[in-house]
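Duplicate of #3305? Posting structure anyway:
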């Protein structure tokens, strides 16, 4: 089993540790166990004064090694505020003092590093793998109804929550200090947006330097044959491949996924990049049978329901790399959220322009006329939706873009479930993040919101988990401190200028990325579930049998009549409900696999 398990003042729970684990350290206060691990960035240090487990790449001033960094750390109440502040990179840290018997856990500010913890009776159980906590402490864990509500809105369970009431994910940049007899002390570092730079010539030069530094830092300890890159054919993955080629030379290993469904397939564009950068290209075409081969693995790997269907192509890409002798992949996640590349940022700008029109004029020119019409067609409904969204404030406007559970609240959930939770929790979660952003503009607050939700809670979790399960390490050069730091100081017009997304980054890419890739419509790494559900009888039957059985687990809190309507509407092409049906499928498979019955008062 991959991962580590730590027990601080939790000796009783320690009895559930599998014999497959090795004792890394043990005294009367703290124990640390390690399972099998395939990671070239894993370190365990054991000195007379402390023991320390670190996974990831720590980048600090002067190019210090992990050991040199931790020798400079001294445990104290100030550690969570100062001594870890100078650490940069992508890491998870567990640091224990043999002298003071204090424990610190910490992760990087970007959310690449990941730890979960269970605080109980003055102690804490911690791990880098939620499934390990389940296996060790399952008898005391209870499913959180609120987390199911979050899941059906966001398709994932957002940090700091997990599927269990008492287990939490550490937040990006969070440091937690445990001292015997005292409550935990915590401190959270945040990204700070200080937009001031609008000199295009200077920014373009800084971008090149930042990306080159990022690549050099993340591959300097690897032989060229040992690493490669995801290559979807999109802007971010292509920019990473291009940057590697510019700094390390031609011949990088690239790994791409394709589909027989042309509207999802991007191999045409990844092949353009391969030709342009002279890559050693590897490809795999994902088909419906791959879904059945991997679905159980996906359900197990995350330790909780995880409804991002692109986890399947990510896994096959990582598996392809592993089977060809590549131990480390570089991924392009984060570019949209740093430089303003998502379509919803542009949509939000259009909404804001409309809302800036005096209310009386909006009413006279459009809204009073529309309100009198009684039409039920797609164009009319889109106009009504536009007016409604434009009149909302963020983050509610952002949230309502695709909040499945909340959108269909009374139709989806049974009343007993709704009476057991507080509807509105998902929006409140986003409002708290949005309000906490160290940013003065609406765009930068939305970028921060996405860094915390779309990136840390979703994309990084997905890529990291799937790569680890395929025995491949992954690094994220777009989230290097030099690249992120530059994005934080960019003027807003450098990200979204007029109606041009990712303005300055596109100008930078124009120097070395083919125009066909820069100008293409974004498709992403999504799975063609929508098509398979309509055209593949085996997939169709699998979804129907799993979701519409009266004996299934979700029927205790989900209205199956509404699920059947979602299914039938999708089959008739009235609506594309594939993403909703997928998240329900994963939830049902996870709950039934672990035989969880929900306690609904």
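Output from current build:
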């Amino acid at each position: 089993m991959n991962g580590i398990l730590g027990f601080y003042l939790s000796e009783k729970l320690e009895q559930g540790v599998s014999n497959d684990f090795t004792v890394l350290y043990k005294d009367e206060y703290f124990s640390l166990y390690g399972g099998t691990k395939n990671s070239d960035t894993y370190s365990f240090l054991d000195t007379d004064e402390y023991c320390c487990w670190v996974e990831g790449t720590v980048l600090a001033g002067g190019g210090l090694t992990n050991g040199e960094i931790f020798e400079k750390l001294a445990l104290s109440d100030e550690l969570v505020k100062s001594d870890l502040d100078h650490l940069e990179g992508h890491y998870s840290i567990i640091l224990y003092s043999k002298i003071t018997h204090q424990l610190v856990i910490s992760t990087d500010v970007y959310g690449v590093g990941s730890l979960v913890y269970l605080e109980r009776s003055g102690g804490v159980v911690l791990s880098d793998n939620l499934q390990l906590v389940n296996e060790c402490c399952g008898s005391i864990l209870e499913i959180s109804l609120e987390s199911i509500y979050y899941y059906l809105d966001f398709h994932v369970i957002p940090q700091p929550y997990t599927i269990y009431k008492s287990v939490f994910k550490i937040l990006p940049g969070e440091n937690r200090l445990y001292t015997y007899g005292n409550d935990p002390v915590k401190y959270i570092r945040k990204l700070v947006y200080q937009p001031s730079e609008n000199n295009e010539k200077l920014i373009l030069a800084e971008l090149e330097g930042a990306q080159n530094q990022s690549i050099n830092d993340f591959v300097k300890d690897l032989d060229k044959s040992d690493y490669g890159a995801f290559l979807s054919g999109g802007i971010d993955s292509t920019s990473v491949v291009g940057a590697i080629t510019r700094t390390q030379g031609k011949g990088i290993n690239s790994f791409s996924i394709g589909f027989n469904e042309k509207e999802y397939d991007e191999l045409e564009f990844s092949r353009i990049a391969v030709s342009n950068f002279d890559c050693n290209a590897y490809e795999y075409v994902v088909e419906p049978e791959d879904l059945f081969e991997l679905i159980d693995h996906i359900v197990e790997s995350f330790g909780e329901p995880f409804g991002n269907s692109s986890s399947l192509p990510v896994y096959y890409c990582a598996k392809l790399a592993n089977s060809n002798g590549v131990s480390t992949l570089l991924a392009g996640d984060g570019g949209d959220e740093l430089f303003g590349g998502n379509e919803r940022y542009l949509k939000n700008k259009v909404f804001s322009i409309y809302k800036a029109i005096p209310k009386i004029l909006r009413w006279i020119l459009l809204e009073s006329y529309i309100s009198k019409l009684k039409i039920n067609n797609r164009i009319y409904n889109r106009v009504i939706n536009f007016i409604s969204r434009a009149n909302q404030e963020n983050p509610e406007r952002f949230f309502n873009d695709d909040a499945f559970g909340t959108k269909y609240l009374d139709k989806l959930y049974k009343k007993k479930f709704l009476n057991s939770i507080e509807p509105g929790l998902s929006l409140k979660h986003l409002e708290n993040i949005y309000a906490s952003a160290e940013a003065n503009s609406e765009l930068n607050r939305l970028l921060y919101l996405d860094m915390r939700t779309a990136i840390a809670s979703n994309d990084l979790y997905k890529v990291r988990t799937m790569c680890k399960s395929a025995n491949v390490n992954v690094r994220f050069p777009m989230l290097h401190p030099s690249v992120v730091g530059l994005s934080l100081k960019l003027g807003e017009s450098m990200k979204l200028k007029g109606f041009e997304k990712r303005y300055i980054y596109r100008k930078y890419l124009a120097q070395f990325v083919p125009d066909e890739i820069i100008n293409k419509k974004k498709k992403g790494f999504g799975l063609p579930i929508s098509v398979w559900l309509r055209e593949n009888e085996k997939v169709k039957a699998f979804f129907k049998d799993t979701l519409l059985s009266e004996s299934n687990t979700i029927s205790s809190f989900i209205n199956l009549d509404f699920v059947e309507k979602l299914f039938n509407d999708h089959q008739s092409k009235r609506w594309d409900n594939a993403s909703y049906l997928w998240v329900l499928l994963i939830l049902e498979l996870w709950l039934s696999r672990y035989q969880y019955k929900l306690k609904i008062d």
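Confirmed duplicate; merging threads. Confidence is low (pLDDT under 50) at residues 61-67, 72-82. The longest helix spans residues 442-469.
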